[in-house]
Amino acid sequence: xxxxxxxxxxxxxxxxxxxxxxxxxxxxxxxxxxxxxxxxxxxxxxxxxxxxxxxxxxxxxxxxxxxxxxxxxxxxxxxxxxxxxxxxxxxxxxxxxxxxxxxxxxxxxxxxxxxxxxxxxxxxxxxxxxxxxxxxxxxxxxxxxxxxxxxxxxxxxxxxxxxxxxxxxxxxxxxxxxxxxxxxxxxxxxxxxxxxxxxxxxxxxxxxxxxxxxxxxxxxxxxxxxxxxxxxxxxxxxxxxxxxxxxxxxxxxxxxxxxxxxxxxxxx
Amino acid sequence: xxxxxxxxxxxxxxxxxxxxxxxxxxxxxxxxxxxxxxxxxxxxxxxxxxxxxxxxxxxxxxxxxxxxxxxxxxxxxxxxxxxxxxxxxxxxxxxxxxxxxxxxxxxxxxxxxxxxxxxxxxxxxxxxxxxxxxxxxxxxxxxxxxxxxxxxxxxxxxxxxxxxxxxxxxxxxxxxxxxxxxxxxxxxxxxxxxxxxxxxxxxxxxxxxxxxxxxxxxxxxxxxxxxxxxxxxxxxxxxxxxxxxxxxxxxxxxxxxxxxxxxxxxxxxxxxxxxxxxxxxxxxxxxxxxxxxxxxxxxxxxxxxxxxxxxxxxxxxxxxxxxxxxxxxxxxxxxxxxxxxxxxxxxxxxxxxxxxxxxxxxxxxxxxxxxxxxxxxxxxxxxxxxxxxxxxxxxxxxxxxxxxxxxxxxxx
Lengths: 268, 412
Ligand code: SF4
Ligand code: SF4
Ligand code: SF4
Ligand code: SF4
Fold this sequence. Notes:
The complex is a heterodimer of chains A (268) and B (412).
Chain A: E1 7-12, H1 18-24, H2 27-36, E2 38-42, E3 54-60, H3 66-78, E4 79-85, H4 86-91, H5 103-110, E5 134-136, H6 143-155, H7 166-172, H8 178-182, H9 198-201, H10 218-229, H11 233-239, H12 247-258
Parallel strand pairs in A: 1-2, 1-3, 3-4, 4-5
Helix pairs in contact in A: 11-12
Chain B: E1 9-13, H1 17-26, E2 30-37, E3 40-45, E4 56-61, E5 64-69, H2 86-89, E6 93-101, E7 105-111, E8 115-124, E9 129-130, E10 145-150, H3 152-166, H4 173-181, E11 183-187, E12 213-217, E13 221-226, H5 229-235, H6 245-264, H7 283-288, H8 294-302, H9 308-312, E14 319-325, E15 331-338, E16 348-349, E17 352-353, H10 358-377, H11 387-390, H12 398-404, H13 407-410
Helix pairs in contact in B: 8-10
The complex binds iron/sulfur cluster (SF4) (4 copies).
The site of one iron/sulfur cluster has 10 residues of chain B, from α10.
């Protein structure tokens, strides 16, 4: 386990750095990781960088500029295995709210000198631009899942990241369902597990950080919610978060907002 | 006082139920009972009768659960909450085996919490193989559990689980350990929720055999029926007296009256004041003979494939086993976790999932539960506890679905 350690590179696009911080947050495990993997390029952690190509590339962030769209192609060509991490890289992130709004208007609101800003009208996931080998979801990613992924990569196994619902995690830890027992709108039944259902464990609804689960059916949840509670706004807000541009979430949010009855307009 | 025999009764003033908790604890049990936590009645460690949800009622319907105080309610007039006995015999997650690379071979520990039995296994260097010798009896290093307030449906569900894990040639030793040390204090129901339909499956509202002690609640006292030798040893520590025949008759009548009321509400509608009913007549054929019924498509449009129904079901026994290594690759654990036929992973094979979509998954759940379970275990997989209805986030009702499947083709 010496000379032939696989090399790892970590890249950042449009993002908040939270996922990279999760890597650094693996404090106790970092030494063990460094023993098995050569950390070749990770600007947030060390200034020394090694030339590519790299065995494993981790990409945080979404594509929001022409420059990044070009950069991701280069990154792809230099990484044997490319893994995107976090809601920005896998779904476009919270910044994808611009995708169905006027981006120039946003720029004018936010920046003192908008003339210096060059940006695309959309924020898109990396997989819209280059082939991606695996997507690790979350906002931010979960440390345990990241370690699991690294262990599986090193062993040459298919990653065991589950694609099932957050509800399963609630039940495994005996959390009483907030949707059923409190009537709170919860995205857990349509969201992929991975967080150990931390929000319901604190009597909060699931915010959908890990994006749509496999076979997600948010439309049914929305219909049920509308029937029971009439006001779909809480659900629209939840669906229009970190994974707002994930197609399943976006379709349902749009459908709820455009519905003739109910005060859903202007929810964003 | 001499040891009461099996089948004898004891009359106990209500506050003296504390003596039961104390006697169980003094006998080495971890006592678990119903109490309010996070807006629901859950099963949790119980030290005092004051923790019991006395005077509370649960309102339950599809996707709906609320608690409220009720003046008429006694000590046990709520019904089942989200948890069944399942976690006490089949924990949601457990480690089956730990392996450690010692440099010359693998050290194997079959363990639950603390390692109990260690074996050093030699690696066969010639073939690069590891010889694993499984130890015969894994220790389950937990105190025995006593559960207070077990209902008829859940006791029947446990009997079904026994067939799954203890019946036939392959016995699950971990299940067996926990099951054999489980002490069950049952309660005959006096009230049912609209989601309860135990009467359709003959699994309630009265307790079946299988409890150690059975409680009947009267307004002024409890009657305690001794159901086992273990129960007798606890009962002799209680400061009660033999009840009169009329008291026993009154206790029995209350549960019988409830059963009559449940039978009278024969409808599979979703209205809160009407109860559920599962028509079991010819159900195996009705479901398995109508695998392409359009109703499966309709329910698949509503179903979220979230798996809540299977997680809360007291008889759903599916688990998956994973090998989990640490970063060094030198320490490996074999872990078992609840699994559900609503997940993609459940039926995943080299050729992809056998149940690729929600329709095939819902069909798997309903047909296994109510039809092919009969072929497999000679019993229905459902006891009518209603949990899958209450805890389904969109309130899908299996009695309603089962009634609708094959409606056209089989109404003879
Ligand atoms: S609280 Fe939310 S995530 Fe948990 S079981 Fe209920 S609906 Fe699912
Ligand atoms: S199928 Fe539903 S009603 Fe039947 S035992 Fe399971 S959870 Fe209870
Ligand atoms: S219904 Fe599904 S989860 Fe339940 S035992 Fe059958 S296959 Fe397993
Ligand atoms: S029937 Fe209900 S609880 Fe079961 S998987 Fe479907 S939506 Fe979830």
